[in-house]
Amino acid sequence: MTIFTLGLLQAVLWVAALAAIAVVATNWPRALDLRITLRYLRSRRSSRLLSLITVIAVGGVTVGVMALIVVLGVMNGLQADLRDKILVANPHLRVLTYGEDLRLDDWRKVLAQVRGTRGVQAAAPFVLTQGLISAGHDYAEGVIVYGVDPDSGRLAVTSFARHFTKGDLTFKTTHTDVEGGIALGTRLASKLSAFPGTVVTLVAPAGAKFNPSVGAYVPKFHRYEVTGIFDTGMYEYDNSYVALDRRAAQRFAGLDTAVTGIEVRLADPEQAQPFALALETQLGYPYRALDWQSQNASLFSALKLEKLAMAFVVFLICVVAAFNVVGTLTMVVRDKTREIGILLAMGLRQGAIRRIFLAQGILIGLTGTSLGVVLGLVLGGMVNRGHWIPIDPSIYFIDHLPVRTQLLDVLQVVVASLAVATFAPLYPSIQAARLDPVTAIRYE
């Protein structure tokens, strides 16, 4: 529904742009028309200063265009930043099996098939489960355990290994009484007061045994040494993810030699959905492919809808600016009524009068649009580089408001603004052209 609405609005925008081009083409001002237009844009008292009402009209268009470019840049930045942050530890594609028991026993055969598929750049087995972690005191935290092969080179499926602030994915330990190394997110490590070298306890959901002496199931405890701290910038990962060597994660989850699935990196992540369907057909039942876009479909759909709504709301500023242009030209027509009558009496055609005021409105819109584009790009770049607007990462996943301006969005803003600026002066220009010369000359 959102995509259809967005496409419809874009179609309406381009139709309006074509109509505006047709209006301009049929009313293209001549040299004399442009000279009179520029003269009318100036104040009576000084030919070097723009009149106050013209400045206000230009300022209205400038503010509207600038606000629209910044808002669209913010929405694009949110989408791009969230996508980049999600793909830090989330692959383009995951090959899983159907059923509640997420385990892949014949993963080596499936891995070979996936790696041989055209469009796959890298593939590796992974383990994903849950646990409860503590660092030797009463505080414990529920975490997602991510078992990954310690390959950070060109065969790595995600960019997870490049976000370590301390240690790495080799999981090399110095203690002898632990089962291996573990990496923690920076926020989780801060809450646990855990640092490289700290031994933490991880409680597994699987492997609990019944203890007759207490009459209950006793969970299994695993001890690991903290060997790395990662900072992805994504709140969910840094707050609730821990990483283990894939073999240690298999033992922790009670999978034996099985894995949760295969994670895949594609040459074109934007084509993950059709690739997943083709890969499912190739592998057959009971395998399924889950792409990153489907996993986060609701989030990105909400962002697209919010972008559409915000753009529409801010576009109303441009509409208000268009009314300001109409008011400005109406005041100019009333102020220049006698001059218009004299020009008509001297033989200037009505079409020329119409072109003069149409050119005046278009010139106001073009000046305001140009200033708005420049100021919008400058302001957006400053906000993005300076991280001026911090936000709550626990709600929005990121810690500052990003701004990424796209050329297509800027082009659409320019087209929409100029289309509005073209249609706005039509009524005042037509009214000016219809003035009766005798009545206009006698006007006081």
* Rg over C-alpha atoms, rounded to the nearest angstrom: 32 Å
- How many beta-strand runs? 10
Strand arrangement in the largest pleated sheet? 2-3-8-5-7-6
Kindly estimate the percentage of residues that lie in beta strands according to DSSP: 15-25%
Q: State the helix count.
A: 16
> In sequence order, what are the helices and strands, one letter per element?
HHHEHEEEEHEEHEHEHEHHHHHHHH
The averaged pLDDT comes out at 78
Q: Provide the number of structural domains.
A: 2
Ends distance: 56 Å
* Envelope shape: elongated
Verbal overview:
- With 444 residues, the chain is an alpha+beta fold.
- The protein folds into two domains: 23-87 and 299-441, no CATH class; 99-284, no CATH class.
- 54% of the residues lie in helices and 18% in strands.
- The chain contains 16 helices and ten strands.
- The protein has helices at residues 2-26, 31-40, 52-89, 107-115, 186-192, 235-240, 246-253, 272-283, 292-295, 297-335, 337-345, 350-386, 393-396, 407-423, 426-433, 437-441; strands at residues 93-97, 120-134, 140-148, 164-167, 181-185, 199-211, 216-230, 241-245, 261-266, 287-291.
- The radius of gyration is 32 Å and the shape is elongated.
- The chain starts with a helix and ends with a helix.
Give me some keywords for this one.
single chain, alpha+beta, 54% helix, 16 helices, 2 domains, 10 strands, 18% strand, six-stranded mixed barrel, 444 residues, elongated
Question: What secondary-structure arrangement, pairings included, does this model have?
Answer:
Elements: H1 2-26, H2 31-40, H3 52-89, E1 93-97, H4 107-115, E2 120-134, E3 140-148, E4 164-167, E5 181-185, H5 186-192, E6 199-211, E7 216-230, H6 235-240, E8 241-245, H7 246-253, E9 261-266, H8 272-283, E10 287-291, H9 292-295, H10 297-335, H11 337-345, H12 350-386, H13 393-396, H14 407-423, H15 426-433, H16 437-441
Parallel strand pairs: 3-8, 5-7
Antiparallel strand pairs: 1-9, 1-10, 2-3, 2-6, 2-9, 4-7, 5-8, 6-7
Helix pairs in contact: 1-14, 2-12, 3-10, 3-12, 3-14, 10-12, 10-15, 12-14, 12-15
